[in-house]
Write a structure and sequence with these properties.
elongated; hypothetical protein PF0899 fold; 3-stranded mixed β-sheet; zinc; HypA/HybF; about 30% helix; 3-stranded antiparallel β-sheet; about 30% strand; 2 helices; alpha+beta; binds zinc ion
């Protein structure tokens, strides 16, 4: 259910962009989803078509770009985090509480019809 509401929110954002450009429909959209955003890309892709029905995004092709988490280790600088290990450096295990990247959930591209 969470992914359905995410899909609806994305459709709303896309609808604003369409209105700004005076476009009636979009044929494709690209969404960036961080590994720490709590959104499962496959679940979002599954929820999207039904959520888009009856909107200007009906039938639009959804591309999900998965963004890996990047944290900052005091010793190693920016490191790519593994979700299974949580917020800690994969090299030395130091906590990396601050995410530099990987919590995004954003509309990246919209292809207007
Ligand atoms: Zn480290």
């Amino acid at each position: 259910m969470h992914e359905s509401s995410v899909a609806l929110a994305l459709i709303e954002v896309a609808g604003d962009v369409l209105r700004e450009h005076g476009a009636a429909r979009a044929t494709a959209l690209t969404v960036r989803i961080g590994a720490w955003s709590s959104v499962v890309p496959a679940a979002l892709a599954a929820a999207f078509p039904a959520a888009a029905e009856g909107t200007p995004l009906a039938g639009a092709r959804l591309t999900v770009v998965a963004v890996p988490g990047v944290g900052e280790c005091p010793q190693h600088g920016p490191v790519t985090l593994e979700v299974a290990r949580g917020l800690s450096c994969p090299l030395c295990g130091a906590p990396t509480p601050r995410l530099l990247e990987g919590d995004e959930l954003e509309l990246d591209e919209l292809e207007l019809a």
